[in-house]
Design a protein that fits this description.
two-stranded antiparallel sheet, alpha/beta, ten-stranded mixed sheet
Length: 532
Amino acid sequence: MLGCATVTILVPQQLCIESDTLLCGSHASSDNTADGGMSHVVVITGASAYPRPCLGCINNGNKIQTRRTTKDVWVELQTKPQIMLQSVRMLEKNIPLREVNLVIYDAMEICSSEFISKKFPCGSEKSYASDIIPYLIHCVQRDCKGKYTAYQESISITLMSCLISLCLFVSWIPKFTLQFIDCVLINRLDYSSTSVKQIILRITQLEKIQEELQTNKGNLLSGRLLLMILIDVSLGITIACVISSYASVNDLYTYFRNWTKVVAEGVHMLLEWLRGAPAGLKLNQPLTQALASFFSYHVHLWHLYLDLAEPVLRCLAWVVVWVGAFGASAQVAVLADLLDLASLHLYCFYIYAARIHMLQISVLGSQWRAFRGRKWNPLKQRVDGQEGISSVGTLGRVLTPVLFTLALFLLPTTSVYYLVFVTLRIGLHMTRGLLTFTIWLLNINPLYLLLLNVTSSTKVKGDIYFSTVGELVPSHGSKHGCSSPLLLKLHTWTTPLCEVIACAHLQNIFPPRPAPQWKYILTSIMFGQQLL
């Protein structure tokens, strides 16, 4: 209960426009442990000519019979010129108005908010009279949920649901096709296509919007997804129109082909630089000539690969432009896949160099252990001492230092190639990460939630507090003298933006934030055992 009052009556401020009629709502009673009496809570949720149950009446002109002795609860209000309490009867006993708290609340704010019911869950029936706020929220959202929904809003939700259903009907076959392609790429080629995953994610987001519109008639999650998709698609179509007005698909492919040739020529010049003495380093000439020729041959194969893949690349250039119908995020995803195709030869170079580097590090470690009379036990995953060193043949004692010396003196040459290609790989990884981060930003756009928070919308109201308005001056028709109840006003605060974003976020609908795994990257660079 609020203070020491025996009865607390909560009245919506929307009743100020009502005239003489009956009141509907709920009431609860519980034992007051302070003085051993009873405490009562009456929640008025609306007015109707034939309410069930009837808890009282609005009497502005003494036209309604106010004496209802058969009722357990009877509240008489006056709404003109303001909401005032005239009389209260509980369990066939008149309650003095000085023992009553009259609380004015906004029913629309409580019905529209998604946070109030989560922060103030309704408990058991025994605690209804002591937990006023949860009981109030429970009664108002139960009785008035659809009362304050605008007709235009209902029509908009219905039209949006029909449009999304049409889009999902058209895209259900492409969705299963893309899921099959994604499984094949992952299982057979160990590659995850960013564009395929982005289009599947977009279809999943549309399915979630349809589900939310059909069940909750529009909430924070569906509004956030709708505005996010609208901005993404508008941006993608704008980019497609701008590109189409200044260049054709053939021009885009020509630009892409020239760029890949420039990259290939740059790699060829880098290999020629490594043939000599790069940065003044004296490398093993037979080995560096062999490695440079090996990688140069792969550059030549890359040129042939681009010539053979020209029809596919032209098709992808067309897709980059008109995939904007799925949003700018899909265009960026296709660019990420094109970057993977254009840098395939650099990835192969990195794999070759990493494997050679890992092999030399492994040979150095094993020969160093053998040189000291130790060996690696793969069953127990530990280093053990070799028993019977004297039994090792002369050939083994000679080959161990020879192999160790060869691996040690060839290590600088292979390490230079490895460092060069791992640097290129890290640069491509950073570019790929930038594109992935752009896709993530377009997919978690919180502009809708930010606008609701800035404008203090009723959808994001979550905290409640009371303010004292003063004591009501009793109306002339009051039947209990000069006493008047304490008038309180229920106010709501806007929920912090971080809580709003956390509430309107689902793991399978929004992609996780891309974060670099520094331990994995450093381990890959140092030992070459794991590939970036």
